[in-house]
Structure formats: structure tokens, C-alpha cells
Amino acid sequence: MNKPASFEARSVADLWLGQQIRQARKRLGMPIASLAKQCELSVGLISQIERGLSSPSVRVLRLIADALQVPSETLLKFGEAPAADEKGVVARAGSHPSLNAPEKGIEKVIVTPQPSAGINVYRAFIEPGGSTGEELFTIERGEQVGLVLQGQLELWLDDKAFFLNPGDSFRYHSKVPHRWRNPGSARAEVIWVVAAVPLGE
């Protein structure tokens, strides 16, 4: 059996954001060249953003959101700005940015105080049947560690599937082709840690 093709993204956040932009563009039936022209950006840059290979700045994200006729918060909810003395140290309840992919049945809340270039911690909420899709993908670098809090998670690493229940945890290098889904009938919640460098280094 042929393995699904895989692709590499710059980060989990870039991957989800790019997918949201692509979905919004497709819903409008807008060619990528039209979006690039409206935003006065290159087709290559838009393509890289959609594939998670490039991180759009806030200015670029707002240009894209305006062209797609959606609020920028629909693509990435930024949350409230922290107090000056808490930035990068404390993130208050209700202020966390989130990535929402309703067509995939997935919401990822970024709980790490921002900015963070080393480790990001997410609360992933996955609806029954929600998934990253059938295509395997990789992240540019680092490792991922997770703990299933509730529900079920089916995790694919290369051609091997692991079925995880509440209390089960996992770890894999981000460059290993992977995908995942919620195979159960209840909403799943997973704490996900994404480290920019392998843990222990």
C-alpha cells in the first residue's frame, strides 16, 4: 500500500493558519493570483503562507483577511494584550490566542505566554471525527509531547497507528510524518507541547 504524501510546515501555528487562509480563499472561489494581487503580495508568498512554510506578519494577515472578507480574528484569535510586566511571563485566563479550524473540527488554544520561540503549549479540542486530514505532515524542527485529558486520539506516525485514551501520553520528533484524529464519539482534549529543539538538548 502506498503511503500518503507528506509535507513540511514551519510550525504548527503556521500550518493551521495557512490551512484557514486556503479554506477561506477556496470558499470564495478566489484564485491564489487574485488574492496576491489584492494584497499586493507575490503569488509565491501567498502559496508559502497557505502551506505553512512562511509566517505572515500582523500587517500581512490583516491584508489577507480584508481581501477574503473575514475578520482577522476568524483566522487567528489574538487574545488580550498582557500587562507590560507580564509579557512573556504570564498569560491570563481568557487572553490566550487560538487557532480555530471548524471544518476540521479542531481548536488549538496557545497557552504559552507569548512571545515564545522555544516551547509552545497548546490545549487542543478535537470534535468527534475531527482530524488533520489523510495527508501526513511534518514540522520543520523539534519534538512534540502530548497528554490526552479526555476523549480518544488516533495518532499516526509514518505507517503505524496508536490509539490513545485519557491518561495516555506520546512523544515524537516533529520531522516524523504524522497525522491524527478523534475516532471517538465524545470531544477530545489534549495538552500538546511543541518544542523548537529536541527536548533534553
Characterize the structure shown:
With 201 residues, the chain is of the alpha+beta class. Helix content is 23%, strand content 30%. It has a six-stranded antiparallel beta sheet with strand order 2-3-4-11-6-9, with helices on one face. A hairpin with an 8-residue loop joins strand 3 and strand 4 (119-126). It starts with 5 loop residues before the first strand and ends in a 6-residue tail after the last strand.
Put the structure in a nutshell.
The chain has 201 residues and is α+β, with helices and mostly antiparallel strands. It has 5 helices and 11 strands; from the N terminus they run βαααααββββββββββ.
Kindly list the characteristics that best describe this protein.
single chain, 201 residues, alpha+beta, 434 Repressor (Amino-terminal Domain), Jelly Rolls, six-stranded antiparallel β-sheet, three-stranded antiparallel β-sheet, 5 helices
Tell me the layout of helices and strands.
Layout: E1 6-9, H1 12-27, H2 32-39, H3 43-50, H4 58-67, H5 72-75, E2 98-101, E3 106-110, E4 119-126, E5 136-139, E6 143-150, E7 153-157, E8 160-164, E9 169-173, E10 178-181, E11 188-195
Parallel strand pairs: 1-5
Antiparallel strand pairs: 2-3, 3-4, 4-11, 6-9, 6-11, 7-8, 7-10
Helix pairs in contact: 2-3, 2-4
